[in-house]
Amino acid sequence: MALSADILRGYTDTILLKCLDGGDSYGYQMIKQIGDKSGGALQLKEPTLYTAFRRLAQEGLIDSYWGDEQSGARRRYYRLTVKGRERLFSDQEAWRETKHVLDTLLLDGNE
Q: pTM of the entire structure?
């Protein structure tokens, strides 16, 4: 089941920050990782990804550098900054609180 874009819209940045929490990465690799980890429920589009990268970089949450590929195309890698790691922690706490409230409101208590 594909997830609603409306539900996910506010969480794209946090999802990307979480991906980078595991180490530096590049766009295609992150798209694949998100798709795989979500069981295909979330398929991030390239324009969404690169718009988010620009926004996160402008906020100082990530930075980027060119990789040194020996074969194939050169890739731009992204990494989490200290500020980005702080934001990820804050966003994760906010998600836990939001999830708790929504579980309380939407589930019958037997979950």
A: 0.87
**What residues have CB less than 8 Å from 77, skipping those under 6 apart?**
24, 25, 26, 64, 65, 66, 67
* Per-residue model confidence as pLDDT tens digits over 44-92: 899 999 999 999 999 999 999 998 877 777 899 999 999 999 999 999 9
pLDDT at 109 over 70: no
Give 95's contacts (C-beta < 8 A, 6+ positions apart).
11, 14
Q: Which residues of 69-106 are buried (b: 16+ CB within 10 A; e: fewer)?
A: eeeeeebebbebbeebeebbeebeeeeeeeeeeeeeee
CATH number for region 5-106: 1.10.10.10
